[in-house]
């Protein structure tokens, strides 16, 4: 799990949608966290490739915390997270991949 010292300081966004539904409601760069129960949490981040990777790696390896800004904080362990998606940032790579199958 992410410890309080490692939790991103940006305010967490509201639930943005369900898996299978477009969740492009966040303007600019954002992190989208897909849970096993169909919820997708999303929050805005600065437009910075290194920072986006830090957020994604922290969530994937330590879990995710959701704070709705109304006095409630929920922690989701790694096994509940299906995927983490960085939206709105070009992520250059020397090893581009392709998708096959369904």
Tell me what you see in this structure.
By secondary structure, the protein is of the alpha+beta class. It is 14% helix and 30% strand. It has one helix and six strands; from the N terminus they run βββαβββ. A four-stranded antiparallel β-sheet has the order 1-3-2-6, with helices on one face. Strand 4 and strand 5 (73-76) form a beta hairpin. The chain is globular. 15% of the residues are buried.
Quick tags:
two-stranded antiparallel sheet, disordered N terminus
SSE inventory with pairings:
Elements: E1 15-18, E2 30-35, E3 39-44, H1 49-62, E4 64-67, E5 73-76, E6 81-87
Antiparallel strand pairs: 1-3, 2-3, 2-6, 4-5
Order of helices and strands: EEEHEEE
Structural class: alpha+beta
Coarse morphology: globular
Kindly report how far apart the N and C termini lie: 32 Å
Number of strands: 6
**Major β-sheet annotation:** 4 strands, antiparallel
**Proportion of beta-strand residues:** 25-35%
Helix content: 10-25%
Strand line-up in the sheet with most strands: 1-3-2-6
Whole-number average pLDDT? 77
Instruction: Give the radius of gyration.
Output: 14 Å
User: With helices defined by DSSP (H or I, 4 residues minimum), what is the helix count?
Assistant: 1
Poorly predicted tracts of residues = 1-26
């Amino acid at each position: 799990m992410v410890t309080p010292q490692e939790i991103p300081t940006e305010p967490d966004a509201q639930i943005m949608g369900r898996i299978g539904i477009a969740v492009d409601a966040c303007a600019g760069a954002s992190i989208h966290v897909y849970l096993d129960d169909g919820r997708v949490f999303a929050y805005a981040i600065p437009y910075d490739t290194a920072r986006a990777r830090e957020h994604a790696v922290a969530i994937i390896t330590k879990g995710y915390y959701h704070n709705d800004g109304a006095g409630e904080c929920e922690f989701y362990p790694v096994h509940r997270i299906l995927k983490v998606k960085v939206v709105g940032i070009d992520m250059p790579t020397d090893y581009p991949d392709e998708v096959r199958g369904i």
